[in-house]
Amino acid sequence: MQNTDKPHRWGMAVDLDRCNGCEACVVACHAENNIPTVGAAEAARGRAMHWIRVERYWEGEFPDVQLKFKPVLCQHCEEAPCEPVCPTYASSHTSEGLNAQVYNRCIGTRYCANACSYNVRFFNFSSPEWDKPLHLQLNPDVSVREMSVMEKCTFCIQRINSGKLAAEAAGMPLKDGEIKPACVQSCTANALVFGDLNDPESRVSRLSRSPRGSKLLEDLGTQPKITYLQRESWDERLRMQGPIGRSDQENDSGKK
Amino acid sequence: MTPEKSNRLAEDLLRPVLHTSRSFYIAVAIFSAIVLCGVATWGYQIYNGLGVTGDNWPVFWGFHETNFVFWIGISHAGTLISAILRIVNATWRRPVTRCAEVITAFALMIGAMFPLIHLGRPWLAWWLIPYPSERGIWPNYRSPLVWDFFAINTYLTASLLFLILPALPDFALIRDRASGWRKRVYGWLSMGWQGTPKQWHRLESAMHIMALAIIPIAISVHTIVSFDFSMAVVPMWHSTIFGPYFVAGAIFSGIAALIIVMALLRKLLHLEAYLLPLHFQNLGKLLLTMSLLWGYFVFNERLTIWYGNSPHEMNVFWSTQTGKYAPLFWAMVLFNFVIPFPLLTIKRIRSITATVIASIGVVIGMWLERFLIIVPSLSRKSTSYSWGSYTPQWPEIVILCSSFAAMALLYCLFSKFIPIISIWELKVGQHPQIKKAAKVQDAQAAGELV
Predict the structure, then answer these.
(1) Distance, CA of B102 to CA of B379 (rounded, Å)
(2) Percent of the residues in chain B that have a pLDDT greater than 70, as a whole number
(3) How many angstroms separate the CA atoms of A43 and A26, rounded?
(4) I want to staple B104 with a disulfide (CB 3.0 to 4.6 A). Which of A102, A213, A228, B78 is the partner?
(5) SS3 for A255?
(6) B101 and B218 Cβ atoms separated by less than 8 Å
(7) Which domain holds residue B81?
(8) In this predicted structure, what is the pLDDT of residue B415?
(9) Does some domain include residue B441?
(10) Within a domain: residue B400?
(11) Which long-range contacts (CB under 8 A, 24 or more apart) does B201-206 make?
């Protein structure tokens, strides 16, 4: 899995045993990345944009139930299904392994979002708007996307770049844990760990090798760079039982 | 053929070109108004963004993409049928070919609009053209959408040639009969056609080459359209059967469209003497063949998925068999198989009316098929947390209706300016020697079958 031709290969570990579902990561991501909120009515029509979301699953039968949370963001796949399908290279792989979205190059075919198995790409169905005075708090390091372009998690590429620059200016090697995307920084339970997968001693590398680790939809061969850690594989159990949450009202019709 | 007969033939078929009735203007006005509504709606959609459509997370494609596949499918009517009938030298084809080729050209133009209409930023669509850019950026040749772009352009070029080449002698005929501006325009269109033996010979060779070339082109086009779906790792999209399945469906819906158009032309332009029950009988048989082939493909696709029992695919599978999309699925089976089968199988029932009823059903059913391929898969992708649904909004419905109006409008205008039945081919067909040869050929064919 290691690719040492490039100095960095960014990845993340998500400890599901730690996540308490507070959604601070979601809020931090919105603030950091100038993600517009679309309002309740549009959100109900499937137009909400959350580069990171906390999926909620129930485990067990009543009264012996347990609530589980799963933060899902772009998996930054090595073999990303979203990349080859874009006719204009708006969706492309960076030299450091990120799945980048070049907003100016996007013509809005939405093919990438259809091809993405994790549904972590979001389309600007309308012009982005912020309620006053929120329009004054936009992050100057992040471009505001215009209507009809696709957007997605960047692993806070602006923070990665400024972290690398700062290290270079100081003449020091980049230290593990120095770069923190907004979600990682705001995670109260320390469930999210970000770092360089090319450095075998980084925290994220060590966690990725943990026996508790697994990838989302690993069998699709997308080679995600996000590792989910959990005591036992409730993913397996989930698959047997079916999820309960946002889509529960639709389950009855679709399943046997 | 006697000169009087030849004259009557030309007069009958040129009548729509040289004389214009009031109902023509009314029809053109109505269809133009609907098309304008569609164009205005597209403008509204561009201005306000795709939020005005039913597209959403995670169903990013809906009606526009369905229409795209549907119209490209309809376009297979023409050229493919007329090319095959030319190659096998089926003499009954003569009055049918041009009607079919026109459907192809216009259905392709309409179909090719939908990749533009569905774009979020259609003014940037030219980025799919591999133009020399100072920044060295090319289109992404790995993307099926780029393949589409080239495939559709190739097919459009080929089918326009295939339509215009055999029309040259007819342009010349109008040139010789018309006066004033008409004479000039048709003189230009006929490109100096004099009807010399050399010209006839070249036309024949060119048509042979085109007929042979256009069959692989047509098949590749709808295969590439199917690649838009089958290349993605989406449950029930990622399928090896999609190429032939889409091509079969395309020819199926194409023949149905051809039958409907022929019936309308027969009534409206009084072509009862040229578009005979025989033509509807024969096309009805072709439609039946395609209906059986289509049913075979659906059975194959469904059975393998059900037997394989992969959980991701079964979610989509059951949503179409018994779930939310089941009414649409079973309506599709009804329209594409259950209704056409008896209507087209039993010889006593297979009248013009019956083939037209079957064809209307097939056109509806094939539209539903395209919808059922796109939407249920997207609403049930691999992660069940992000399942969704899709409800079309009025802009999509208006644009769908206006695409049909555009077809009607273009067809009306075409049959106004160019004889919709190839006059020279009919004349050739009525030549006593050719008639005799055809009879011998038919008898031989019948003998071989027995």
Answers:
(1) 37
(2) 94
(3) 15
(4) B78
(5) coil
(6) no
(7) 3-51+59-130+140-231+396-449
(8) 87
(9) yes
(10) yes
(11) B203/B165, B203/B166, B203/B168, B203/B169, B206/B165
Question: Residue B448 corresponds to which tokens in the numbers above?
Answer: 């071989």
Residue B300 has pLDDT above 50, yes or no: yes
Sequence-distant (≥ 6) Cβ neighbours of residue B37 within 8 angstroms: B398, B402
Instruction: Tell me, yes or no, whether B368 lies in a domain.
Output: no
Closest CA to B360 of B434, B266, B262: B262
Q: Which residue has the higher pLDDT, B91 or B169?
A: B169
Give dist(CA A43, CA A237) in Å, integer. 30
Beta carbons of B173 and B10 less than 8 angstroms apart:
yes
How far apart CA B40 and CA B395 sit, in angstroms, is 10
Nearest CA in chain B to A235: B383
With contact defined as beta carbons under 8 Å apart, do B242 and B300 qualify? no
Count CB neighbours of B5 within 10 A.
Answer: 11
Segment 297-326 of chain B within 8 Å of chain A by CB: 311, 314-315, 318-319, 322-324
Q: Are strands A192-196 and A91-93 parallel, antiparallel or unpaired?
A: unpaired
Please name the member of B122, B127, B228 whose beta carbon is closest to the beta carbon of A88. B127
Interface test with A, best of B45, B137, B143 (most A CBs within 10 A): B143
Q: Specify the range with the lowest mean pLDDT, choosing from B118-122, B265-269, B427-431.
A: B427-431
Domains and CATH numbers, chain A: 10-246 (3.30.70.20)
List the one residue out of A156, A166, A229 whose CA is nearest residue A192.
A229
Q: Please say if the pLDDT value at position B137 is more than 90.
A: no
For residue B248, the SS3 value is helix
Backbone angles phi, psi at B369, to 5 degrees: -60, -45
Region of poorest pLDDT, from A118-132, B83-97, B132-146: B83-97
Q: Which of A109, A113, A123 sits opposite B145 (nearest CB)?
A: A109
CA angle A187, A189, A195 (to 5 degrees): 55
Count of domains for chain B: 1
**More confident call, B31 vs B192:** B31
Radius of gyration of chain A (CA): 19
Encoded tokens for B45: 């959609």
pLDDT digits (tens, 9 = 90+) for B353-386: 999 999 999 999 999 999 999 999 999 998 888 9
Angle at B358 between CA B352 and CA B359, to 5 degrees: 85
Helix/strand/coil percentages in chain B, nearest 5: 75, 0, 25
ipTM over 0.95: no
pLDDT in tens, B63-73: 999 999 999 99
B150 close contact with A: CB closer than 8 A: no
Task: Report which of B79, B147, B87 is spatially closest to residue B107, judged by C-alpha positions.
Answer: B79
Amino acid letter, B13 = L
Q: What is the pLDDT of residue A253?
A: 42
Q: Strand A10-15 to strand A226-229: parallel, antiparallel, or no bridges (unpaired)?
A: parallel
Distance, CA of A38 to CA of A255 (rounded, Å): 31
Say if strands A192-196 and A10-15 run parallel, antiparallel, or are unpaired. Answer: antiparallel
- Count CA within 13 A, CB hemisphere, residue B438: 15
A111 phi/psi in degrees, rounded to 5: -65, -40
Cα distance from A84 to chain B (closest Cα, Å)?
A: 5
The rounded distance, in Å, linking the Cα atoms of B417 and B98 is 13
- Residue A77, phi-psi category: left (phi > 0), alpha (psi -120 to 50), beta (remainder): beta
Of B146, B319, B385, the CB nearest to A253: B319
Does residue A254 carry a pLDDT above 60? no
pTM: predicted TM-score of the whole model, two decimal places = 0.91
Beta carbons within 8 Å of B113's beta carbon, 6+ residues apart: B403
**What is the distance between the alpha carbons of residues B81 and B88, in angstroms, rounded to a whole number?**
11
Residue B242 lies in a domain: no
Contacts of B164 (CB under 8 A, 6+ apart): none
A195: which strand partners?
A11
**pLDDT tier at A232, thresholds 50, 70, 90:** low
